[in-house]
Write a structure and sequence with these properties.
Blueprint (H helix, E strand, L loop, with lengths): L18 H11 L14 H7 L5 H16 L3 H13 L3 H13 L4 H21 L4 H6 L8 H10 L5 H23 L4 H23 L11 H10 L10
Length: about 240
């Protein structure tokens, strides 16, 4: 190095997420969380029956498209904004976001799913934080909490960043949807793991996009998903509730 050269300081690594917060996110993303996510396919079962999503490659493409075209434009941005609102106790903002999420559910089954899972997660939170008056009060802010808003409350009490929280939420969704594909197509477990790996590669980009979406740019425009979800209500044989 030249005597005149100025040494470049090494880039500082981001502070590691505290173990308790990391474990809380893993817990919230786990299929074992008692919110009933395993009982829904979010239209995938109808897609298998009516839209030719009957192979591993078709199932993988369908779920990756759903991640980018639906989740990254709607639920993930709303979740990030709800985390911020919960952390500053802006309950009016929380209610507005919750109303928006409920309004985006275009079929009775999708509405039922987000309300049932949101209600179950709030019940779980009340059990986990039975002695915390603030959490107990917050869990009752929304008369009918949606799942993204309930998840935001559960994660807001951790030291996790919005990015970490969205990654956990998206991976939990990916696990549930992969298992739905394994059962509905049907597929073997190895095929399911390949689909999950494909989704895991796509999730960081979807989360990065979601974090850049402001209020006015959130959207829930997935007409084929809405049609298939409606058709699922009268599908002859069903494994899932949506």
């Amino acid at each position: 190095m030249s005597a005149l050269a100025t040494p470049v300081a090494p880039a500082l690594a981001p502070a590691p997420l505290p173990a308790a917060s990391l474990l809380q996110l893993i817990w919230l993303a786990s299929p074992a969380l008692p919110v009933g996510g395993f009982s829904y396919s979010e239209g995938l079962e109808a897609a298998v029956d009516r839209a030719g999503v009957d192979t591993e490659s078709a199932g993988s493409r369908w779920l990756c498209d759903q991640l980018h075209l639906s989740l990254a434009r709607s639920d993930l941005p709303a979740l990030a904004q709800a985390v911020e609102a919960w952390r500053v106790a802006d309950h009016a903002r929380v209610q507005a976001l919750n109303d928006w999420v409920l309004q985006t559910r275009e079929s009775s089954e999708l509405r039922l799913q987000t309300e049932q899972m949101g209600r179950s997660l709030m019940d779980w939170l009340r059990v986990q934080h039975a002695g915390d008056a603030k959490v107990l009060a917050a869990s009752r802010v929304c008369a009918s909490p949606s799942y993204p808003v309930a998840f935001a409350l559960a994660a807001a009490g951790t030291a996790a960043s919005a990015q970490d929280i969205l990654l956990a939420y998206a991976f939990g969704w990916a696990e549930n949807m992969t298992q739905a594909a394994v059962k509905a197509v049907p597929l073997g477990q190895s095929a399911g793991q390949r689909i999950l790996a494909a989704l895991a590669r796509e999730i960081p980009g979807a989360v990065a996009h979601a974090l850049r979406v402001p209020d006015g740019d959130r959207q829930a425009f997935a007409p084929m998903l809405a049609i298939l979800s409606s058709q699922h209500e009268t599908q002859y044989s069903r494994l899932f509730r949506s």
